[in-house]
Amino acid sequence: MTTTNRKIAHLLEELADALEILGENPFKVNAYRKASRVLQDLPDDVGEIYAREGPAGLEKIPGIGKRIASKIAQYLSEGKIRKHEEVMAQIPPGLLDLLDIPGLGPRTIHLLWKELDVVDLETLKKALDSGKVERLPGMGPKKVQNIRKGMDLLTRLRERIPLGLVYPLVMRVVEALKDHPEVLQLSPAGSFRRMKESVGDVDILAASARGREVVEAFTSLSGVERVLAAGDTKGSVILEDFQIDLRVVPPESWGAALQYFTGSKDHNVHLRGLARERGLKISEYGVFRGNERIAGATEEEVYEALGMPWIPPELREDRGEIEAALEGRLPRLLGYDEIHGDLHVHSRYSDGNSTLEEIAEEGRKLGYAYVAVCDHSQSVKYARGLEIDRLEQKIREIQALNARLEGIRLLAGTEVDILPDGRLDYPDEVLARLDYVVASIHQWRKDEDVTPRILKALD
Q: Does the reported pTM lie above 0.70?
């Protein structure tokens, strides 16, 4: 999804949310939601379509009607959707945030707003604590309990960002800064560099003798929505709803700073204790014996000064890696060049964004020998699951591609749904024609024990 498509899709989704809270016609609300999904799945940039074909080109996009096409054109020509601004002016700024609470829908939010003047998370918490919420029509203790659980879950989710969401953005920033003439070294740090499954914040570290110039380049990057700080050695921005911080250090401290800001905290505390035992002091500026800096230009120097080899960032959690390094028994981590293939990707046949040929090309760039394309099966209609005839069409296309592809092979697969009675979503004779099958449960009742379904599917 392109940046332009993403921004317009977000505005349309936000407009739909606001209209639903205001009690607008459900058909109109759903039209905006559908258009948002269409833009999210659209591989082409709507800005390029508009520049090439004008409003008529937008109307040709399946799922985009004339009225919504005009609003997209309005954004592309004016940078805003007037309908969005009009509707958003009718509701309190924090009201839409309540939709992020699992289990709290637009109708309940409307009720809370009108009856108890709930306008954001803080006023919702006060209303819950006052006992007034459970006395509202259709509420009650159970509903209140579920809202509280949803708020707790939202708080936990907001503390961390899934690595997959922030990874492309961070690498885009790194790519934009790495060739700056004043940048001598550049790397992400923190939990991102340690490749944790989620990150609490994003730090990027640079080595330079001209910190202010590097910070200015960082805060001027395309897509920066707000500059939070800009000094000689540190910059902080909001980029696509994420806060990213840049720190600039002198080249002689690069290794020590990278080690320090990569963490983890427990790993660093252990290292500092080890340094003290050896009469050394370790900080983001270097490793010192008294006033003499004995290491710090590279991470390897830092670890070597403490009597151990460099420890890969992914291991730095103080879970025995320091002892292993001191004893010469650090494990060897697998590299990306040792991965031979991927056994579960989706294509544009269902809810993926790429064609089969594009998947093959990307796999070849990664050095893969094979990729299994496992699109959703026919019952998963909300994700464009494949009816049998479309599955057979996909198999034929894969066979044709494999006949002419060199250096990589596509495997014809499916993510077949496990139905409520434990049967699989395709008959055995269809599954037999596939190279690879993943079985999944996508829908279930809240009170259902899905174990018997899984066991039956395994049998």
A: no
